[in-house]
Design a protein that fits this description.
By secondary structure, the protein is an all-alpha fold. The protein contains 19 helices and no strands. It folds into 2 domains: about 425 residues, no CATH class; about 60 residues, no CATH class. The protein is globular and about 65 Å long.
Length: about 475
């Protein structure tokens, strides 16, 4: 299973590193520079608002389905036809609730029009994720990897033509950006459904109230978990835009700072995509998982420590290279929010392990506590410190949630606390910080300095045997021979 994880992760990372960084740092960044912080900030707030009730679209079905199909492949065709109909009903509920709450919190006019399109996009995206969960549940990870970058690839082509192709003399509008997303999601959903249909044969949607109730009963713990996690991950921008005079601009500044975290976090998210069906299968077969957990954590923790140190030391240089407006404010916020990376990456491993185990009650208690903590901190910090307040609120919440989930996983699975391993990570952390502080004197080019600091940090990780390339190569060779 470690070999399968490494080979499929390598392919998944290759595709995502090829496409998604260009999307975030090329297209998405260019759009914000074109439309300005206030216009993009409004979009970011509405985009995050569209996530708040996203669970009504899915009701935890995707995570339940990924885990269930990994254990019982023969149920795929039966479940797919019934669940697609159920999701259509849930989409109607999602639209009504989201628009009602949006009106209650004061959105109107152009804001509601833009939000309506974003809600439709969320419906398409949720459908894609559900269809992908069936592909991943069948362990067709390479196909799932291709689908994972298909929508962004389409967006890059269309946005690139509109931004730089000279097809219009009008200034780029944020509405165009949203409609391009609609086209890309629709095409991806159609192609993914066509692939599954080719595998399963004739598929017909049908409504079965008893089947729907059974699925909802089984998936509702996943639904509650996702709802709670969505609130503490997505509500920062919404609260910035709603709580402050000129809040759209502050949300735009926060979005500039958050963009790189979002970029690296996409890579960490890919671990959970692969690990959930693997953990589910291993738990069913009662296989030991400590080695796979340690391997996946090291593959996230070492790069995370390097990224956090580099982005803290060179936050001003990085923001200055990426943006035109509000560079100094974004750099300050960025130096805080980037430290969420390690905590979020840890949740993608240990939270996924607990999900595969079915420890939903414990996870829901953690997520509910994190949501309450995040909202309380935002209400206190945002009026005083604006975007920086939201950054500190997010960092504290993510760190607490990650530590509690790690402790839960150790208790439930009986993992031993390896003090020697913890000591090596502590030494690495100190060496990473020192290497990047030292790198400031190496060159006047911050990119060169980051490379120097990264090389020294990686060499330190190799010496401390936190990264074991020989073991990775052996796993890959075993895969080839198999």
């Amino acid at each position: 299973m470690q070999r399968k994880f490494i080979t499929n992760l390598a392919f998944l990372l290759f595709l995502n590193l090829l496409i998604k960084p260009f999307w975030i740092l090329g297209i998405d960044r260019a759009v914000q520079n074109e439309v300005g912080a206030a216009s993009y900030g409004l979009y970011a707030a509405l985009f995050n608002f569209s996530f708040l009730f996203n669970i009504l679209l899915d009701f935890g079905i995707t995570n339940f389905n990924n885990r269930n199909i990994a254990r019982h492949n023969h149920l795929l065709k039966k479940h797919l036809s019934g669940i697609l109909t159920l999701r259509l009903v849930l989409a109607g509920v999602y639209f009504l609730v989201s628009l009602l709450v949006a009106a209650l919190v004061g959105y109107s006019g152009r804001e509601l029009g833009l939000l309506t399109i974003l809600l439709f996009n969320q419906g398409l995206l949720s459908l894609i994720l559900y269809l992908r969960s069936n592909i991943a549940g069948l362990h067709l990870f390479r196909i799932d990897s291709v689908v994972s970058v298909l929508d962004r690839s389409i967006m890059i082509v269309i946005c690139g033509i509109v931004l730089w192709g000279g097809v219009t003399d009008e200034p780029f509008r944020i509405e165009w950006f949203v409609w391009i997303q609609t086209i890309a999601y629709a095409l991806t959903a159609l192609l993914t459904f066509a692939f599954l249909k080719s595998k399963l044969g004739d598929l017909r949607t049908n409504w079965d109230s008893r089947f729907a109730l059974v699925i909802l009963k089984k998936s509702y713990p996943f639904a509650i978990l996702i709802l709670l996690m969505t609130f503490y991950n997505r509500i920062d921008s919404v609260m910035l835009e709603r709580l402050l005079p000129g809040g759209a601009e502050q949300a735009g500044i926060y979005a500039q700072a958050y963009r790189l975290l979002d970029s690296v976090n996409m890579i960490a998210y890919l671990f959970s995509v692969l690990l959930l069906p693997m953990f589910s299968t291993m738990i069913k077969q009662k296989k030991p998982m400590e080695d796979l957990v340690e391997l996946s954590f090291s593959l996230i923790a070492v790069p995370a420590l390097i990224v956090m140190a580099a982005c803290t030391v060179y936050s001003q240089d990085i923001m200055d290279a990426l943006y035109i407006h509000h560079v100094e404010e974004s750099a300050e916020v960025f130096s805080v929010v980037i430290h969420c990376f390690l905590a979020m990456g840890s949740v993608y491993i240990f939270g996924t392990l607990l999900t595969a185990h079915g420890s939903l009650k414990a996870l829901n208690i953690v997520a509910a506590s994190a949501m309450c903590l995040n909202i309380a901190l935002n209400l206190w910090l945002i009026p005083r410190y604006q975007a920086m307040g939201a950054a500190f609120s997010g960092l504290i919440t993510q760190a607490v949630a990650a530590l509690v989930q790690i402790a839960l996983a150790h208790r439930i699975f009986g993992f031993k606390i390896r003090w020697g391993l913890a000591a090596r990570y502590l030494i690495l952390s100190l060496m990473v910080i020192a290497s990047f502080l030292f790198s400031m004197n190496w060159s006047s080019q911050f990119v060169v300095n980051i490379l120097v600091g990264s090389v020294v940090s990686l060499l330190t990780a190799l010496v401390l045997k936190l990264i074991r390339p020989i073991e990775l190569i052996r796993l890959l060779k075993d895969r080839e021979q198999a």
